[in-house]
Amino acid sequence: MFEARLVQSAILKKVLDAVKDLLTEATFECSDSGIQVQAMDSAHVSLVSLNLRSDGFDKYRCDRNLSMGMSISCMSKILRCAGAEDTVTLRAWDNPESITFIFESPNKDKLAEYEMKLINMDQEHLGIPETSYSCVIKMPSGEFSRICRDLSQFGESITFACSKEGIKFSASGDYGSANIKLVQNTDADKEEEAVVIDMQEPLKLTFACRYLNCFVKAGPLCNQVQLSMSDDVPLVCEYKIGDIGHIKYYLAPKIDD
Amino acid sequence: MSQRSIDSFFTRI
User: Fold this and answer.
1) Integer Cα distance of A51 and A244 in angstroms
2) What is the distance between the alpha carbons of residues A65 and A123, in angstroms, rounded to a whole number?
3) Rounded to whole angstroms, how far apart are CA atoms A201 and A232?
4) H/E element holding A223?
5) What is the pLDDT of residues A6-42, one digit of tens each?
6) Of A128, A206, A251, the CB nearest to B10
7) A and B: number of Cβ contacts within 8 A
8) Inter-residue contact A151 to A170 (CB < 8 Å)
9) Which helix (H) or strand (E) holds A185?
10) What Å distances lie between residue A236 and A106, A148, A149, CA to CA?
């Protein structure tokens, strides 16, 4: 059988909020090492890679590897039924046709079970090569969300230009143009407020706002976001999920026609 | 500008 328990169901709620605008369904690969999801959005422009390690769960048991196709919208609806302080347990039998979500209140006076039918999905897995990136930026996730939101008003895409002076985000369109520059700031009072720029080579890449604004939905999972970029390869936008894992979004850059 | 698809960067396994 498969059983995974998280004392803080809020983490799983936030994970669902971070993927539900990009994915309608996804295969959850469960093994001894944890839960992995790799899925592209319907337009095949971005890829979501989610990893939740088994040792990050409060209880984890997976007797045999399982691939469970799940409706993200249905899972999201079920997780909305969990109380903020509830514990969540995911449970499935071997060769499952459904998965059960069990929510337990902190004082154990309420137990709710939601059973969700699994869906058959074509297995499709992409090999992501190890890449050494020209620029790796760490910055507050709230700041990144704000920049994407603000610049989206000016155009459909945002250009990221990284130089030794810092990183400049810019957008332009029919109404005008805007740019926001950030310089390295490792003296911030709090670690989560730091901006760290590790640049090997300057670069300039353009990405679609529509997808960036989906990625920033992972902001509540982590105070910091890491952006890894090189010429002609996808941007990696990574949020750590506490001590349990991470969510990485890959986005192909836009190219000049 | 045009948008490349993400699967063109990765290999199917």
Assistant:
1) 8
2) 14
3) 13
4) none
5) 999 999 999 999 999 999 999 999 999 999 999 999 9
6) A128
7) 55
8) yes
9) none
10) 37, 15, 18
